[in-house]
Design goal:
By secondary structure, the chain is mainly α. It has one domain. It contains 22 helices and no strands. Helix 4 runs antiparallel to helix 7. The longest helix has 43 residues. The radius of gyration is 26 Å and the shape is globular.
Length: 594
Amino acid sequence: MWFKQLRISKNLSVEFRKIFTLAWPLILINVTRSSNPIVTTAFCGHLDRTSLAAATLATSFINVFGLSIVTGLCAACDTLFPQVFGSSNKKKLGIVLQRSLIILSLSLLVIYTLWFNCGALLLVLFRQNIDVVSILRLFSNILLYRLTDTFIINAIPSLMGQLYFLILQKYLQAQGNVIPAAIIGLIGNGINALLCYLFLFVFKWGLTGAAWASNISFCFLPVATLVYIKWKKVHLSTWDGWSQDLFLDWFSYMKLATAGVVMLCIEWWSFEVYTIAAGLLGTVALGAQGALVNTLLFLFVVCLGIGDAATVRVGNELGSNNPTGARRAALAALFLSSVSVVILFSIVMATKDVLARAFTTDKEVIVLAATLYPFVAACHIFDGTQCICGGIIKGIGIQRLGAIANFLGYCVFAIPIGLVLTFSAHMGLKGKNDAKNLGIISLWIGSLTGLSLQMLFDFIILARVNWENQAKLAMERSRDDTLNLSTSNSENDIEMDEVQKDIINKDVAANDTETLINSNENIEQDVQVIVRSNKDPWNLILKRRVITTIFIAAVFAVGLTLRFTVSNQILRSTNDSQPVTEIPILNTTGAFNV
């Protein structure tokens, strides 16, 4: 018995090393991704207050209505890439990569439709509430909207660069190759800082220059990664050229991707809600909230690296039909999470006064932030743990359950509890400062409650996972898509089932199904031959893909038309207001970029 326990202990120690080897470069990658927009915003702050406010607002818009969505969509890559690479059918990884590039590129067009009209949208949203929400008085300045619009429109290529880098990074990540992406990320940050200095202070291009510094640095990332892949021939074992199979199985892909969007955006957008609520309590509360959120972001990035490593290890083991290894990888990741959150909790508690001073020199903000840092440290225990649970969930491919857990944790508990407590305290206390301080404390109490429940929900999900069944599903995902045309189960694209029925019906009518009926053991091979020889299924699939593309292109065209008609007219017809005299929104969600 003791020998068996020793063997399990040795296996776990090996798994610890594998996860740690993957985790630290992934942490570095996440840090570089987070710091890039912070550096850009900091450079804009040296222009003038209006430029700083515009860059902050634009970055927040880009994060909420751009980066959070494409990062969530990449959750399908998190599941499929490691599982396929862990299987014996590694060439399928190249097809899934092609599918990801096409589907997510189409998704970009939908996002850009919103970006084209961002300035007018922000103007309408905020100016309608100027009289009600005094903290948004800053946004009555039409110049701010024009500058924000300028930054976002010019930064359109940056989101494309980030998306393609994410896909290629996850492609390498699934193969255990993570250090090159970390190095490329560091170089990209250096390029961004250098170009920001040149474009803003040498060439005097203003916010347009800042946006193009981001464009060049972010577009450098996928180009450099692609050069590395070709140079080191990393693709040889997984790439067999462009294949028409990339048009298959979009339904299954989008099920994983959309669940990933919900899973991520609920958490991401909840912190945006907290920041808006803190803004209603005044500039001191908002300044403290900015310091707290940025600290929690840094702590989250550390656990996110471990979670990404867990995604790879769990996915690889499931893809190789090793449910015991997948379970062991999940346990190792959870153990590492407990160690990391305890260490980071201790660091925050020991340095809370120093951390508060790192973000501001305002004494009131420092005192309030230092008071709230114990709540941040406590939140990280649950937030960091659920982050790693989320990585395991993505590695398994049960994002739908993760999305439900996030919805319950944030939308049902955290946000309602936080907002009710916040504004109950604000209205119930006579002392204005006491009410505001208790209000922001209540926000973090709500967050703490929601995160603890979310972690509990994640634990329940993982405790009920049938690892053997999940290994079978991973093997199914790793099969050739042409073979999937002959199978009918819940994990396959619904279109494939329809095509299969259509083929069989036609062949039955033509009395050509004798081979299919004669032998059960040869049925899959026979149907596969029929599928390959019948042109109808490919015509049906291609028609659907063309219709989807035309529809998205039409939406894109409508957005572009609105930009040159309605949006431009709104921005030009509004008179300028007084110059900006204060910047209440600083160091907040503009830096929340994971």
